[in-house]
Amino acid sequence: MPLVPLRDLLDRSAPTAAFNVIQIEHAEAIAAAADETGAPVVLQISENAVRYHGSLAPISRAALAIAASAVSPVAVHLDHATSEDLIREAVDLGFGSVMFDGSALGHDENVARTAAVVRRCHGRDVSVEAELGEIGGKNGVHEPGARTDPDEAARYVEATGVDALAVAVGSSHAMLTRTATLDFDLIARLKAAVPVPLVLHGSSGVADEHLAAAVRAGMRKINIATQLNKFFTAAIRAGLGDDPVLVDPRRYLGAGREAMTTEVARLIRVLEGR
Ligand code: G3H
Ligand code: ZN
């Protein structure tokens, strides 16, 4: 049961764990953890990762191929895209879902451009996640940040036709400490008001017990990136030591990939309450 659309995962009652892919080792580690736990996962590639590589196709083709050969269901998703051209390219490559991030735009422009993306993507059977209420940390600054208003979120979903909504509830991107304070009451009010699955971004900054509580309160897709890179890099650092004859990247990248698999599997179990 290999590559599946995100829609199939969000239809389940269990939460959907989504992990960011920067290098091929990320995709291999995440798919291995999915197979180890028997849980579905999302491999997501952000516009920032595309900027790093200089193009979308090579890393995407690797992720799509890894998804296709996994035993667990795996979706491939474009994360935080601000460019409609990049979204078109992802759809052509075979992504089952994309995120259009219009959160930095004015409200009317966010609605208009998101709705246009939704129309085009739905025509290709691709689902769309959007963001309302800018989730902090994208500029490296961690502040209490914006909050998404439930009534405004309901109107936004109605006006745009999006399939999933990223909401600002207290998390912040790229935190190295897991100290974010989530507003669980707001999550519950958003769940009651919004008819599509809610997405938690910046989940690396959220402690295990708060991730589980966020799922119980109503978050359905949990995006995690930095936490994996912490484990990946720590294992590489430890593996490299100061050995001057260690030059084969497979030795240290392999250690990083293994550490990432262990952490992804552990996070999946936390989210699923196992
Ligand atoms: O879209 C991706 C995420 O929101 C990941 O954020 O690096 O703070 O876990 P994070
Ligand atoms: Zn995010």
From TrEMBL:
GO BP annotations listed: carbohydrate metabolic process
Highest taxon listed in the record's lineage: Bacteria
Pfam assignment, any one: F_bP_aldolase
Active site per UniProt: 79
Cofactor binding, note field: Binds 2 Zn(2+) ions per subunit. One is catalytic and the other provides a structural contribution.
InterPro entries xrefs: Aldolase_TIM, Class_II_FBP_aldolase, FBA_II
Cofactor needs: Zn(2+)
Keyword Zinc: yes
Positions of Zn(2+) 1 binding: 80, 173, 201
Molecular function (Gene Ontology), one example: zinc ion binding
UniProt keywords, alphabetically: Metal-binding, Zinc
Signal peptide from the UniProt entry: none
Residues given in the record as Zn(2+) 2 binding sites: 101, 131
Protein name: Fructose-bisphosphate aldolase class II
Lineage of the organism: Bacteria, Bacillati, Actinomycetota, Actinomycetes, Pseudonocardiales
